[in-house]
Amino acid sequence: MGTRDTFRTAVANVVPPAGLTRALAVQAMVYAVGSGLFHAGSAVFFTRALGLSAAQVGLGLSIAAGVSLLGTVPLGGLTDRYGPQRVWVVGLLLNAALFATYPFVGGFAGFLAVVMALAAVEAATGVAIQVYSINALPAAERVTAMAYQRSSLNVGFGLGAVLSGVVVAVDTTAAYRGMVWFISAVALVSALFVRRLPRLPHVTRSVEPMSRLAVLRDRPFMAVSLLSGLLTAHQALYLTVMPLWILTHTDAPKTVIAALVLLNTVLVILLQVRVSRGADTAAGASRASRRGALLIALFCLALPISGATRGVLTVVVLVAAATLLIMAELIESTGAWGLMATLPPADQRGAYVGAFRLGSQVQYLIAPAGLTALGVTTGGWGWLPMAAIFVLIGLAIVPAVAWVGRTPRLGSAAPEPAMTSVPEPAMTSVP
């Protein structure tokens, strides 16, 4: 009986409950198949099918990242004006159209136009997805639902990566064109799926709407955005810095890198929902963020040990360090979702969620190069100041969230009720 209960609990932590939570998770998985396929095969597609040089691809993607950074806040405001579901559907339709044009790109200028447009579309739809989940679900279910979505995303990414391997193995122009047209079709299917989700009543404003960039003047909120965004550096640590450290400072075989990526995918699928509990209030989310920061700091102290070990012991140390970072990622993610769900005012969630995502965009600009310089090129001593940085972020984020709770949000009459532990009532959906 105990074994059966354990199995049921394990299944419940992977398979979302019936209803809107499951629908959102299924949509996330379907869309992630296309995203995983493109992320795994895009470099080969750009160079082999479009004939671009590596330098041109790198420059184009860097410019697109700048568009995403600059557009996150103003494009997030579209959600407040038109509603998250409408922005989400339109974004998916534009995404499908842009991917369908990829095979007809005739040079760097056309490539740049498409990747910039896709970056702008994804900046708007990323906010819309988050706001829809927040508005559609009761306060106590939001973080758990986002955890199920992330678990499903990893399943979809894995399936997409497998399909990408098939495309690259075939290695023909027709295969690469079929890849992007398949991704376009996935976006269309996703748009139809989102269109059929429950429609939500428009949130009426209690005060005059503020300008789309006014949220940047909300100093307490932007402080939390920056601190939380910096914690997403665990992505750069796992996918960039740790592999470079393994290659240059350890005797571990190269295959360990792929094994650690697989470990990350499996643990996210199995554990993300389990660790998400308790982050559905601002206070709980801030504590989760603090725990995530301290675990990142522990990783920064554990990984360098692998540079002084040999053989099997090196692999053991690497797996232990990677597990610390994976747990940090899981816990920090739940903290970020909780903060995103509880801190913005209900009538201006688009602008505020866009501003919250700005912190992670800043991290994308500085973390890969900065953390690589500290952790890899210093020979190892740079891990100590890196650990200290994450300890300081962890210590700062709880009082920063409390500061937000004491300060009325811009454009709102008073602080949000969601800042307390009292759950909000569910919004009524319209079939």
Order of helices and strands: HHHHHHHHHHHHHH
Instruction: Assess the beta-strand content as a share of residues.
Output: under 5%
Which regions have little confidence, pLDDT < 50, spanning 5+ residues? 413-431
CATH topology of the largest domain: Growth Hormone, Chain: A
Structurally, how many domains make up the residues? 2
Q: How would you sum up the major sheet?
A: none
Mean pLDDT: 86
Account of the protein in words:
The protein contains 14 helices and no strands. With 431 residues, the chain is mainly alpha-helical. The chain has two domains: 15-195, Growth Hormone, Chain: A (Up-down Bundle); 214-419, Growth Hormone, Chain: A. α3 packs parallel to α5 (108-136). The chain is globular and about 60 Å long.
Brief overview, please?
By secondary structure, the chain is mostly helical. The protein contains 14 helices and no strands.
Present the secondary structure layout.
Layout: H1 2-12, H2 20-49, H3 54-82, H4 84-101, H5 108-136, H6 139-170, H7 173-195, H8 219-231, H9 234-249, H10 255-271, H11 282-302, H12 312-342, H13 349-377, H14 383-405
Main traits of this protein?
431 residues; mainly alpha; Growth Hormone, Chain: A; 14 helices; disordered C terminus
